[in-house]
Design goal:
By secondary structure, this protein is an alpha/beta fold. Helix content is 23%, strand content 28%. It has a 10-stranded mixed sheet, sandwiched between helices.
Length: 325
């Protein structure tokens, strides 16, 4: 179970591959008040295993709403529970860390619940469950370049955002071979976010390592962790992760504070990674949120919204170099 501090975005959280197999606890007390809209889905599939809220609103006020949160969860056979003090649960997770949890009938014996929790094995490498099974394209008019996205659990909204920058996108499965990527002749490669433990993904780390020096590389979330590992950085699981909106980040280059949204469960230690430079760090715990290798044309970021930074430091703008008109 993990917590999110976001006031909105519960629909995005439902269908984000990053949360595959997890139970979400929402710190904001009222969830479901604007319903769900079919046009806003990143995926039609729901990835989380459970939802914990203080109050569920099944009478949404939104002219775009096509269904309620309960409707969506029932259709996808996802269990939910309301009426709990979610902020108290958030404090427990904050202090004790992310842990196993279960939602069950009140008549289920406590001893049986504890036994099931103890025996439950967490899948730390579910990337094969969320990655696409075959290559697919997302094109735009008058493209500047073509980029390949290695799908570790990429959201369609991220692909659309890349299209907005004038880039054709080719999305490939996580286990695509280097030779197959070369055949696509990309101008750059993006390694997406995803739900897996980066330290369990040796084959993908080797693929990313083989791409370095051949193409400009941009790693998002899990992709940034994999890039960091290729520089001999250490990647460790965080106590409770950074999940939510309005998280303060310091821009190391300008010393200004920027407000971001984040979704990551792992921390990067660049002490031994001498070739990369930290560009953004978390204000509270000094966690590395973005780094760059200017010479190697490599950028890694844990910042969820890749276009929220100011224009000069915009991560996608630094990843691509637009052609002169």
């Amino acid at each position: 179970i993990f917590f999110s501090t976001a006031m909105v975005g519960y629909q995005d959280l439902l269908c984000d591959p990053l949360y595959y197999g997890k139970i979400a606890c929402m710190s904001y007390p009222l969830i479901g008040n604007y319903g769900l809209a079919d046009d806003d889905y990143d995926f039609k599939r729901v990835f989380i295993n459970g939802y914990v809220v203080k109050e569920n609103n099944d009478l949404p006020s939104n002219f775009r709403a096509t269904r309620t949160l309960s409707d969506c969860m029932e259709e996808n056979k996802v269990v939910g529970i309301e009426g709990l003090d979610t902020r108290e649960i958030v404090k427990i997770i904050r202090d004790e860390g992310i842990m196993k949890a279960m939602i069950c009938d009140e008549n289920k014996p406590l001893e049986e619940c504890l036994r099931e929790l103890k025996e439950y094995e967490v899948n730390e490498n579910p990337v094969e469950e969320v990655s696409c099974k075959k290559m697919w394209y997302s094109r735009t008019a008058n493209p500047l370049y073509t980029v390949v996205v290695i799908d570790l659990g990429v959201k369609t909204s991220v692909v659309k955002k890349i299209n907005e920058y004038g880039l054709n996108v080719v999305v490939v499965p996580y286990n695509t071979k280097l030779e197959d990527i070369k055949k696509l002749k990309p101008n750059g490669v993006i390694i997406s976010n995803g739900p897996s433990n980066p330290n369990k993904m040796n084959d993908t780390v080797e693929l990313v390592k083989s791409l370095k020096g051949k193409y400009p590389l941009l790693g998002l979330g899990l992709g940034a962790d994999l890039l960091a590992l290729t520089y001999d950085a250490k990647v460790t699981k965080m106590k409770h992760g950074h999940q939510g909106a309005n998280l303060s980040v310091r821009n190391v280059n300008t010393n200004k504070i920027e407000i971001t949204s984040q979704t990551h469960f792992y921390s990067i230690d660049v002490t031994n990674a001498t070739k990369i430079k930290v560009t953004h760090e978390n204000v509270i715990d000094k966690d590395v949120e973005a780094f760059i290798d200017e010479k190697g044309k490599v950028i890694g970021t844990n910042l969820l919204l890749i276009d929220t930074l100011n224009e000069e430091e915009n991560i996608l703008n630094r990843f691509i170099k637009k052609k002169k008109k």
